[in-house]
Structures are given as C-alpha cells and as structure tokens.
Design goal:
Blueprint: H1 5-29, H2 33-36, E1 41-47, E2 52-55, H3 66-76, E3 84-87, E4 99-106, E5 115-122, E6 150-154, E7 157-158, H4 160-167, H5 173-201, H6 203-226, E8 231-241, E9 247-258, E10 261-265, H7 281-294, E11 310-313, H8 331-347, E12 365-372, E13 377-383, H9 413-419, E14 422-430, E15 444-451, E16 455-460, E17 481-486, E18 489-493, E19 496-501, E20 506-510
Parallel strand pairs: 10-11
Antiparallel strand pairs: 1-2, 1-5, 3-4, 3-6, 4-5, 6-7, 8-9, 9-10, 12-13, 12-16, 14-15, 15-20, 16-19, 17-18, 17-20
Length: 523
C-alpha cells in the first residue's frame, strides 16, 4: 500500500483526537481535583506491539514511560475482549506509585488485540508512609501500594475483590474509586473510537497508517537531528539534595551527534541516593524524548518513531536509572526536570538560538493530608506549583507557568477551598525573580495556604540551593523558598520536608524564576 499524504494527515489527527477525547472523558468524570481540575493525566493509542502511535498533549513525563507500561502489561497477561490491566510499578514501566496506568485492548473482530489504548493518572493518595504518597522515603515500599500488572476489569466487569483490596490500602477510598472508574471510562471511549476508525477505513488501512505515522515522525526527527552540527556536547547540573543527608547530586550527559542520530550518555551521573529523588530508566527516556520532540519545528505526532534516531545510555544503580527497591517518589517530578536542564544545557553549545535558559527546574510538590473537620473524613491534597520559564534568544521567559516535564493546570482557589479545609491567603506572581539579560527569565509564583485543621504536610522541591542557570551571560533565576508562618513568626524550611502542622499554620511556597539569556538572537 502506498502512503497517501492526505490520508496520513487525516490519520494523524484521528489518532490524536482519540487520545484527546479519552482525556476529556477522564477529566469530566474524575472525582479528585488533581485529575478533574489540574488534569494530571495522559492518554495514548498503541499498536499491537505496544508501540505508541499517538499521545494527547498532556504530561511530557509520561511520553516515553507509558509505552513501557503497556508492553509490561502485554507481556504479563493475556488479554481477552473487555479486559483492562492496571499497574503502577516504576520498575515495570511506571514512573512513581501515584501514577497508575490502565491498559485496554482493541480486538477489532480479530483473535488477538490489534491496538491498545491506555491512560495514566496521578492519584492524590495510594497509601504509604505519608498522606499524598510523595514521602521523604528511603525505599519504594514506604511510598504506597505497588501494583504489578493485574486485571482490574475482566470481560467487561470490574474485579471487585481487587478493587476492594486497592481501596483498603488508601486514605481516600471514595475518591480513588471514582478516579479509577473515570480511567476505565476513558479507555472504553478509546476502544469505541478506535473500532469506529477501523470500521470506516478497514483494519489493514488503519494499521498501515499507524506504522506510516511512526515512520513519518522518525523521518522528521532525523531531519531535526541532522540540523545539529556533528560533535560532542556535555553538561552537568546538580540536585540540591535527597531530602535526608546527601547534597549536590550530579546529573551529567554527554551527547554525541552524528548525522541524523544522537546518543545520550548519562553514565557519569551520580549513584542513586538514599532519599526519594531517584528516577527509573523510563523517566530518563521520557526527558530525552521531550527535548528532542521540542526541537522539531513542525507539528508531528508524538510516537515511537521520535525515539528511533536516539540512543540512551545509563548506568544501572545511578540516580537516572535506579535499581529496585530505590525510593523514586520524587524522580518523576524533580529529577526529570534536572535531566531536561542538562540535555538543554548540552544542546545550547550546538544550537544556541534554539535552546532556552533553565526553567524553574522543579515542580514544587505539596501534599497535605488529615481529617476534614467539615466531614470528619480523611482528605489528601496534592499539587505542583508553576514558576518561571527560561528566556530564549528571541523572547523573555513566560512567568508563572508549568514548564518542561509537567503540563498540568493549577487547582483554582475556589475549587481548592471547596474541596479541602484550606484558606488561600495569597496567589501571585513573584515579581523580579526571573534572571536578567537582554532577554529576561520568567518570574515564579507565590502561593500561601493557611490550614483550617491539623494536617500532615510534605514538600518535595528543588532549586532552593542551585539556581536555574542563565545562558551566554544571562543571570540565573532566583531560587525558591519554603516558609512556615506560625503565630506571626516566619521560618524558612528546607526544600524537602515532612511535618505535622497545626490548625492556623500558614505554608508559603515561593517558586524559582527562569534563567536569563544575554546573547541577542536573530529576529
């Protein structure tokens, strides 16, 4: 069959629209503000081998990792019509335990599945040693319930024994059940739309154009890499600490560009830490895919083809490829940002006018849990907070945005105060925190929350010691601050902490600004 360019464009949009509609279903039917308001989720369509055909424009940190979860599900269990497999194990393609993936097959009248649809959503609590399941842990076992690939739905019916087991291990079972149901409905939407596509165009045609889209994405990505001068480009940056005792943890990359291929070698990064900032290989792969997809200047589907010209080399047991049972809660959210920073830093030596200075470099994770005095029931709140984006050769950095590996929205103040016993005292742009230069970095955010009940609070944040770098003489962005205000007294707290706070205490998060850019770019 010969590729018809018009049909190729049609299928590019049809596959993307399936993923997008799955996301709409998930957000509209979810229970938790984290999924319903912040949209901390991703949806995608896969071929029979588990290779990603298209993903909606959701969360970049899920880009390279969700296919690994789908392949783990395919390898672990035989699928039948109406089945769905759930998993969150970071060492089987997951990222961290709150990110739960559900996979569903599309049989299209055949004996074996011909496609799969899947979605991943961040659950505000999956058990573990602290509310919100983002603890200062030293082991994966402390972070929540570990779910290997298992069938949550068999032949169209939810397995109530497994569902009951899962809900018995979390702090907010009603909210979790609602979010699980929303994920299942999203997959039903994806299966239905994929079957409709096959019915309209035939199975052979749909499979042919799925593979053609991957080949197309590969060709365009190779063209983008070929525009980078051949050579060796290295960069390193540091994590502030692991939240326990270890500080200044190095992340290093050496990028080798030859023709239309690139090799990214992270083996000189530091060994895995005791604290929960480690990343599994899937995290590193996602960061690589995100950066190289970003330097492609035309609209292509984000799929398996984008990875084919790239080779990622890591060292087992390092912070960027941790070994079981390393603590990994913060790897997905914090380490992933630093991996992006070092890849961009390395590429700035090759294509300076295409690369921004460092963004805020953290997701400023806040989890708060306790008993809501209005209902006398447990609550678990999780949110990431935006900051400043790095400046580029041609523009100032955006202020008060989620950048790089996160693409969520914020929880509106009204929804936050309605859902939780909080009072938001301030939510503003942190003026003057972007790094200066001919192009200035974006400013960070100030978010101040007063607790209306006693609560357990955990914060995982970065760039409290090492600021986001500027480029070519541009100044770094301001570091972030975590402040506790109690009875009028202000105290600065570390970048990572867990504490029992009292009713009336105020948690103030001031997020970093982006780095500045001094060299004037072309107009």
């Amino acid at each position: 069959m010969k590729v018809n360019p018009i049909l190729l464009e049609v299928f590019k949009n049809r596959f993307s629209s399936i993923s997008e509609e799955m996301g709409v279903t998930l957000t509209r039917t979810a229970f938790s503000p984290n999924i319903k308001e912040r949209r901390d989720l991703s949806c995608a369509v896969f071929d029979r081998e588990g290779s990603m055909i298209a993903q909606a424009a959701h969360i970049p940190v899920h880009l390279g990792s969700m296919p690994m979860s789908v392949k783990s599900a395919i390898e672990a269990l035989p699928f039948r019509e109406g089945d769905m497999v759930m998993l969150n194990d970071p060492f089987k393609g997951g990222t961290h335990l709150p990110d739960i993936t559900i996979v569903a097959p599309v049989f299209a009248g055949e004996k074996d599945p011909r496609f799969y649809v899947a979605n991943r959503a961040h659950h505000a609590d999956v058990g573990g040693m602290s509310s919100g399941s983002m603890p200062l842990s030293t082991s994966l076992f402390q972070e929540g319930i570990i779910i290997p690939p298992l069938k949550i739905v068999e032949e169209g019916k939810i397995d109530r024994k497994i569902m009951g087991f899962l809900l018995n291990n979390v702090r907010t079972p009603g909210e979790r059940e609602g979010d699980f149901s929303a994920q299942i409905m999203a997959n039903i939407t994806g299966v239905r739309r994929t079957e409709e596509l096959i019915k309209k165009y035939t199975l052979d045609t749909v499979e042919f154009y799925a593979q053609s889209l991957m080949s197309y994405a590969e060709q365009v990505t190779r063209r983008a890499i070929k525009s980078i001068p051949d050579g060796f480009y290295s960069f390193e940056d540091f994590m502030d600490d692991d939240g326990l005792a270890r500080e200044k943890i190095k992340v290093h990359v050496l990028i080798t560009v030859r023709g239309d291929e690139a090799v990214l070698d992270f083996r000189n990064s530091d060994s895995q830490a005791q604290g929960s900032i480690n990343g599994v290989y899937a995290i590193t792969l996602s960061a690589v895919l995100y950066v190289f997809r970003s330097i492609v200047d035309i609209d292509i589907p984000t799929n398996e083809g984008c990875l084919r010209p790239l080779k990622v080399i890591t060292r087992k047991g390092s912070v960027v490829d941790a070994e079981f049972p390393a603590a990994v809660a913060g790897g997905n959210v914090e380490l992933s940002q630093r991996i992006v920073d070092v890849i961009l830093g390395a590429l700035s030596g090759a294509i300076p006018e295409s690369i921004p200075a460092a963004g805020q470099g953290t997701m400023n994770n806040v989890t708060i849990g306790g008993i809501d005095p209005r209902t006398q029931k447990p609550f678990a709140y999780y949110e990431t907070i935006g900051g400043g984006m790095g400046a580029t050769a041609g523009s100032d950095g955006e202020s008060a945005v989620h950048c790089h590996m996160t693409n969520t929205m914020n929880t509106p103040i009204e929804a936050l105060e309605y859902s939780y016993p909080f009072l938001v005292r301030e939510y503003s742009i942190r003026r003057g925190t972007g790094g200066q230069g001919k192009r200035s970095g974006g400013d960070g955010i100030t978010r101040e929350i007063q607790l209306l009940s006693d609560a357990e609070v955990t914060v995982l944040s970065e760039r409290r010691k090492f600021p986001p770098y500027g480029l070519f003489g541009g100044k770094p962005g301001a570091v972030g601050k975590n402040i506790l205000i109690r009875e009028g007294t202000r105290e600065t707290w570390p970048g990572k902490f867990s504490a029992s706070l009292k009713k009336g205490d105020i948690l103030r998060i001031e997020t970093p600004g982006g780095g500045g850019y001094e060299r004037q770019g072309r107009t």
